[in-house]
Write a structure and sequence with these properties.
The protein is α/β, with parallel strands linked by helices and about 350 residues long. It has helices at about 1-20, 25-55, 85-95, 105, 145-155, 175-190, 210-225, 290-295, 295-305, and strands at about 65-70, 100, 120-125, 165, 195, 235, 250, 255, 260-265, 280-285, 320-325, 340. The longest helix is centred in the N-terminal third of the chain and has 29 residues, at about 25-55.
Length: about 350
């Protein structure tokens, strides 16, 4: 009986040995799979880096955030633009490879534009009727900012009609609640970004915490009630920050990701260490005249064109942050996981 048992054990051992000759242990297979996955990942990253280098991607570069107010035939101040000037502003941006993104997309780092292109943020303060007025059938009136933007976008594929409108209680000249809801709803439904500009457009500098929260929170509450939109960013009236800068971002009725100042310089990319969500610079839109010889849109767009290495250029992949290797020290730690140096 014992001999039979031993013979059976011998047969099983032989089968096990023969099986072992034809297959690898599970641990070896798992290791090979991990090695293959790592190799594929490395190859994919190398290919992405090569593609980024080909378009000279620099997603740590500067972004022009342009500041508009009224679009009217007879400008009353240097903040105003005529419809013809505004159209020319947009045509230049389209011609030079800029792609509009919203302020919300910028401050949250959701910049998804084609490879080799440059983001630009178009912002409109004060919710003026010249920016958006709807006719009796709900279509933007001719020569309003939205109408002109949509017209230019239709003529330039790849240049979307996208902008951020910073709202006060003026609500595009509408005082009837239903009309206010209509205009805000139109912006929301057509892909435009709605931001906070305080209820009464007051200077927040020197005001108490209670006053700051009241000015920002009350209009945030009203915007949500009318459109179900919670503003992601705020444009500070006159570019003035409150005594404690954080008050502009966080309050009982609001939670902004970024606060924009008045015009001065291009803004750092949200992936750069230089980016400060408490005070993001914008650029006043104007030709090279007086102080604007250096610090307004025409001058800065000329400078960015002449210094392409300083301008934000996309790699076309929203899941990575691509840049030349020597710029690595300028990357914010929060984005190391998505970094793609080349």
């Amino acid at each position: 009986m014992r001999l039979g048992i031993f013979r059976g054990l011998g047969l099983l051992a032989a089968v096990a040995i023969l099986a072992g000759c034809d297959s690898q242990p599970a641990t070896v297979k798992l290791t090979d799979t991990k090695v293959d996955a790592a190799a594929k990942l490395a190859a994919s990253k190398a290919a992405k880096a090569k593609a980024a280098a080909a378009v000279k991607a620099n997603e740590l570069g500067q972004i022009p955030v342009l500041m508009f107010h009224r679009i009217i035939d007879k400008p009353g101040t240097t903040d105003d633009r005529t419809p013809q000037q505004f159209r020319a502003d947009l045509e230049r941006l389209a011609r030079e490879g800029y792609v509009p993104i919203s302020a919300a997309e910028m401050v949250t780092g959701k910049i998804d534009i084609p490879a080799g292109k440059h983001p630009v943020v178009l912002t409109f303060d004060d919710s003026s009727p010249s920016q958006l007025t709807l006719n009796e059938v709900g279509v933007p009136a001719p020569n309003t900012a939205v109408s002109i933007l949509k017209d230019v976008a239709a003529k330039h594929p790849g240049f979307p009609a996208k902008a951020t409108f910073y709202v006060t209680r003026d609500m595009f000249g509408k005082s009837i609640r239903e009309e206010q809801a209509q205009v805000l709803g139109w912006l929301r439904d057509n892909g435009f970004d709605i931001g906070n500009h305080t209820r009464d457009h007051v200077n927040l500098r020197g005001r108490s915490h209670k006053e700051v929260e009241e000015q920002i929170g009350s209009i945030a509450k009203e915007i949500f009630a009318l459109s179900s939109v919670r503003p992601v960013s705020i444009a500070l009236p006159y570019g003035n920050q409150p005594s404690k800068k954080e008050w502009a971002l966080h309050g009982k009725l609001y939670n902004h990701k970024g606060a924009f100042l008045a015009g001065y310089t291009p803004a750092p990319a949200p992936f750069s260490k230089a980016f400060d969500p408490l005070g993001i610079p914008r650029i006043k839109v104007m030709e090279k005249k007086g102080d604007c010889k250096q610090f307004c849109s025409e001058a800065w767009l000329d400078w960015l064109k002449s210094n392409p290495d300083m301008r934000y250029t996309s790699d076309g992949d929203a899941s990575t942050v691509a840049y030349p290797k020597f710029k690595t020290p300028y990357l914010r730690k929060a984005f190391v996981k998505w970094s793609l140096p080349y």
